[in-house]
UniProtKB/TrEMBL annotation:
Main location: membrane
GO cellular component, as recorded: plasma membrane
Organism: Micromonospora acroterricola
A single GO BP: proteolysis
PANTHER family associated with the record: INNER MEMBRANE PROTEIN YBBJ
Bilayer-spanning residue ranges: 7-35, 41-63
Gene3D superfamilies: Nucleic acid-binding proteins
Protein location: Membrane
Record carries keyword Transferase: no
Residue span, NfeD-like C-terminal domain: 85-142
GO function terms (MF aspect): peptidase activity
UniProt keywords, alphabetically: Hydrolase, Membrane, Protease, Transmembrane, Transmembrane helix
Superkingdom as given in the UniProt entry: Bacteria
UniProt name for this protein: Activity regulator of membrane protease YbbK
Amino acid sequence: MDAVVWIVVGVLLVVAEVFTTTLFLIMFGVGAFAAAGAAALGAPVAVQALVFAVVSALSLVVVRPVIRRHQRSALDSGEQPFGVEAIEGSTALVLERVDAEHGLVKIDGELWSARSYDTTQSYEPGARVRVIKVRGATALVWQDDVSSAGELPEARG
């Protein structure tokens, strides 16, 4: 019965990790699955708890830094970006008015919800904008004509 409890705890931790994406809770999930293995082998509850603590701690100290190191941005590592990273910096066509609250743009043939990177700006349909960031499924856009803008959004204070 103890093994089932540990498995349920492990599954709950792994599911919670899906929503946090911090690579923290999953390490405790690994510890819970290890404790389930100890319980299945007939270890007493104190040993199960010790296995949970040791495996979780080792996962946090050893495995998590390795995963995070490999998770760094393709742009940081000089590799060809893909997915959302490939969209950042690209040009988009405004299809529906974009402001701080709502908007719709077309990026490489795909429709994306959009918001203005500068909340005081708005862009009318037909305007060209540059994708500065992507948050979830929403592109944060800035005017495309950098030379007439005078400054990049990163330079603003």
